[in-house]
From TrEMBL:
PANTHER family: ALIPHATIC AMIDASE EXPRESSION-REGULATING PROTEIN, PTHR47628
Disordered: annotated segments: 383-407
Skewed-composition ranges (Basic and acidic residues): 383-399
InterPro entries per the UniProt record, alphabetical: AmiC_PBP1 (IPR039570), Peripla_BP_I (IPR028082)
Sequence intervals crossing the membrane: none
UniProt cross-references to Pfam families, sorted A to Z: Peripla_BP_5
Name of this protein: Transporter substrate-binding domain-containing protein
Length: 407
């Protein structure tokens, strides 16, 4: 056992309006820390310095300042929202720390104090729209929590739709944690979109999906088979909370428990043994888990936890982790990821003990990060429309280029 102990911050909200995904992130990081500490691959151990900002954006900076200052952390694994990430940037600059940000986000950022191991736009919203729009139509209703994630994801959606001569029938926002959504349901009833792009998070999203489910039960024109909800952040972690209202939602993630790739079955079995069979393994868990393993390998290779040394060596390293290899792009500090797309199905439909995702693009390929969408066009963005869609519809104009130019 080594005497060398390296403190690292673990900063996720375990309480508050989006605490379900916060607890997943916390558990993912803590599980990986325990595995690293038990491994004989490393000549050090991690000491977790954990804190709960309780979904209050201003608390992230306060707690990060303490971690990087008095607690002597050099690295922080954490943050669930872009709001909280933005709050941390001045703190990271002041202390020259490094944030490992592992959730999907809206892109248009590349900061030298952040490693972005979650999906950016060309790895989430772009492949999602490319897969789904030809089968369901191009008339969208856009929803978002009232902060940068909702604003920017819907802005990108508008541009993708405009490139295909689509239409936005409504764009509405609610405050984080707000569950008063009857006005959204009423407007959707009036406009009758082809699909809904849902960028609400936490309690707001759960309330909306439950209300939409009731609407679909009353009028089949609003059922998930006819008018699906698309998401870039719904994962297995939230399905037990939402219940049947989640069925039919089509979501994209860089990891799904049901994805068939090397070593995933063994990893899922280990996590089920650790956490219980009824709990799904989600991207919100595996993102921080993978980040901790990558950080440990970088420190072992360069012999130092110094953030600048770690950051500079990351792009040169193979970073195999129990969830799959991680590759960091030097120019953007974002990860190469696979944009899996899945539809939520019931436990009965899956023959399982819990609801989960059926893959719509099981042969998805890894995509290099393009956070500013500078390379996005029909030739550079590879797509796969071969998977059968829930609607059974044929794609519109299959020979037509899907995406043209996005700012």
């Amino acid at each position: 056992m080594t005497d060398r102990v390296i403190p690292i911050g673990v900063l996720f909200s375990s309480t508050g309006s989006y605490s379900v995904i916060g607890r997943e992130g916390h558990e993912g990081a803590m599980t990986a820390i325990a595995e690293v500490n038990a491994s004989d691959l490393f000549d050090f151990t991690f000491e977790a310095v954990a804190a709960d900002p309780a979904c209050r954006a201003e608390q992230y900076a306060v707690l990060a300042n303490r971690m990087l200052g008095q607690d002597r952390c050099r690295h922080i694994i954490g943050c669930q929202t872009s709001w909280s990430r933005k709050e941390l940037l001045p703190v990271l600059e002041r202390h020259q720390g490094l944030l490992w940000y592992s959730v999907p986000y809206e892109g248009f950022e590349s900061h030298d104090r952040v490693i972005y191991s979650g999906a950016c736009p060309n790895q989430n919203v772009v492949p999602l729209f490319a897969q789904i729009l030809p089968h369901y139509g191009k008339r969208a209703f856009l929803l978002g929590s009232n902060y940068i994630w909702g604003w920017e994801m819907n802005r990108i959606a508008r541009e993708l739709l405009a490139a295909e001569d689509g239409a936005v029938l409504g764009e509405r926002y609610v405050a984080l944690g707000d569950v008063e959504i009857d006005h959204l349901i009423a407007e959707i009833c009036d406009t009758r979109p082809d699909f809904i792009f849902n960028n609400l998070i936490g309690d707001s999203s759960y309330a909306f999906l439950r209300a939409l489910r009731r609407l679909g039960e009353a009028d089949p024109a609003f059922s998930a088979d006819v008018m699906p909800v698309l998401s870039c952040n719904l994962t297995e972690a939230e399905l037990p909370i939402i219940g049947k209202a989640a069925e039919g939602v089509i979501s994209t993630a860089s990891y799904f428990e049901s994805a068939a790739y090397p070593k995933n079955r063994e990893f899922v079995q280990r996590m089920h043994a650790l956490r219980g069979r009824s709990r799904g393994v989600s991207a919100m868990f595996t993102g921080p888990y993978q980040a901790v393993w990558a950080l440990a390998q970088a420190i072992q290779t360069c012999g130092s936890p110094d953030p600048d040394i770690v950051r500079d060596i990351l792009p040169t390293l193979p970073l195999p982790t129990p969830v799959g290899d991680l590759t960091i792009d030097r120019s953007t500090q974002h990860a190469t990821l696979t944009p899996f797309i899945g539809v939520v199905e019931s436990a009965e439909a899956l023959g399982d003990v819990k609801a989960g995702f059926r893959m719509l693009n099981p042969q998805a390929r890894r995509l290099a990060p393009d956070p500013y969408l500078v390379n996005l066009n029909a030739e550079r963005q590879e797509r796969d429309f071969a998977a059968p869609m829930r609607s059974g519809k044929e794609p519109d104009e299959p020979g037509r280029s899907f995406l043209r130019v996005v700012k």
